[in-house]
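Late entry, evening session. Most of the bench is empty. Finally got around to the prediction I had been postponing all week. Sequence below, unchanged from the version circulated by S.P.
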Amino acid sequence: MAISLSLTVNGKPVTAEVEPHTLLVQFLREQLRLTGTHVGCDTAQCGACTVHLNGRAIKSCNQLAVQCEGMDVTTIEGLAAASGNNSANNSGNGTLHPMQAAFRECHGLQCGFCTPGMVMSAIALATEKPGLTEADVRAGLDGNLCRCTGYHNIVKAVLEGAEGMRAGAAAPATSAASAT
């Protein structure tokens, strides 16, 4: 028995039919083809499936899709538009979110499997706690596992990304028309 589901995903309204037992991660990957959200453990232990639900980081492998009725979901694919780093029309010009850029610049990834979940968790952490310290980052990412790195560059990336987020929030907004 399929259930009708309406929610917003990466700023766009979505309506779909889902089975009652469909997990949010399955819905995102299999029905919406947003494969940046990874399935690592299916037990909410690794954090590879982390997305934002109404602005809060959650592990989508233990959230039923139907529980998200009317809510706003942001995946790794929706970060640039959500961050305001795109052009005025949010057309997706390829600009990375400051946290994504920091992970790239600080070499905060190796194989990349955990990276989307790490980035989503890091953004939520930086938003909740603007004056992050290294200890805050290490404690805040406790639920996200990386099997490749020693976390040193991930922590460095989160701190740099948080600084970039603060700098971006402090910068005055400019429209495409005023930039010409």
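Two things to note before I forget:
The two ends are 54 Å apart (CA to CA).
The chain has six helices and five strands.
Will write this up properly tomorrow.
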